[in-house]
């Protein structure tokens, strides 16, 4: 699938690649803003403000920090050059950025069974019955197979730990581990892209 992604438009290819390399939700990816991207001593980081996350209404939620590595870093650096002080996936529509739904529609129209615009010739996906969100699930599962500890894997996808009382004491945000495991995931995805 990774090698097939360039059959999509550059925007859709970039967004789907970011699903794979960051494990983030589509709405977070398409609303990425240049103000949230910072170069730190260990590399490029994207910090999604708590107010812009799915967990925004939960008291225990915090800003979601994402190290950008491999293809994700390359995409973000390229898009930053164009975005300036704005959204990395800008739109001329109602929203100032591309809507998450647009990515799903693009995937749907390339499915072999899609009847959308039948007069339009376009490449058809070799893998059927999936949505962009399934890429996030697949990579989270792949991390588990690779031995990523659950607290790190769940932190990467932005899930809050269960409210067992331990999270009252454990305030560790797993930044070092996030980068370590996304580097490992990037290497694994590059291996899979060669198959």
CATH topology: hpI Integrase, Chain A
Order of helices and strands: HHEEEHHHHHH
% residues in beta strands:
5-15%
Total discrete domains: 1
- Number of E-state strands: 3
Low-confidence segments: none
CATH architecture grouping? Orthogonal Bundle
Number of helical stretches of at least 4 residues:
8
Kindly report the spatial arrangement of strands forming the biggest sheet. Answer: 1-2-3
- Name the average pLDDT: 90
Helix content: 40-55%
CATH class identity: Mainly Alpha
Distance linking N and C termini: 10 Å
Which sheet architecture does the biggest sheet show? 3 strands, antiparallel
If you compute it from the alpha carbons, what radius of gyration comes out, rounded to the nearest whole angstrom? 17 Å
Coarse structural class = mainly alpha
Shape: globular
How does this model look, in words?
The protein has 195 residues and is mainly α. It has one domain (2-194): Orthogonal Bundle (hpI Integrase, Chain A), CATH 1.10.443. 45% of the residues lie in helices and 8% in strands. The chain has eight helices and three strands; from the N terminus they run H-H-E-E-E-H-H-H-H-H-H. It has helices at 10-22, 26-30, 70-83, 100-109, 132-145, 150-157, 166-169, 175-194; strands at residues 37-40, 43-48, 64-68. The protein has a three-stranded antiparallel β-sheet with strand order 1-2-3. A hairpin with a 2-residue loop joins strand 1 and strand 2. Helix 1 runs parallel beside helix 5 (132-145), helix 5 (132-145) runs antiparallel to helix 6 and helix 6 (150-157) crosses helix 8 (175-194). The chain is globular and about 55 Å long.
């Amino acid at each position: 699938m990774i090698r097939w992604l360039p059959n999509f438009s550059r925007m859709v290819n970039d967004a789907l690649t970011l699903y794979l390399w960051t494990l983030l939700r589509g709405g977070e990816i398409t609303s990425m803003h240049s103000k949230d991207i910072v170069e730190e001593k260990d590399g490029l980081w994207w910090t999604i403000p708590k107010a812009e996350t799915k967990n925004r209404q939960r008291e225990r939620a915090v800003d979601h920090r994402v190290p950008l590595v491999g293809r994700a870093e390359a995409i973000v650096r390229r898009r930053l050059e164009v975005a300036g002080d704005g959204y990395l996936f800008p739109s001329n529509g109602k929203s100032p950025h591309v809507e998450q739904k647009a990515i799903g529609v693009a995937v749907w129209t390339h499915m072999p069974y899609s009847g959308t615009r039948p007069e339009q010739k376009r490449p058809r996906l070799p893998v059927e019955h999936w949505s962009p969100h399934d890429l996030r699930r697949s990579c989270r599962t792949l991390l588990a197979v690779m031995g990523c500890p659950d607290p790190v894997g769940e932190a990467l996808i932005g899930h809050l730990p269960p409210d067992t009382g331990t999270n009252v004491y454990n305030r560790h945000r797993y930044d070092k581990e996030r980068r370590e495991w996304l580097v490992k995931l990037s290497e694994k995805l590059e291996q899979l892209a060669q198959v």
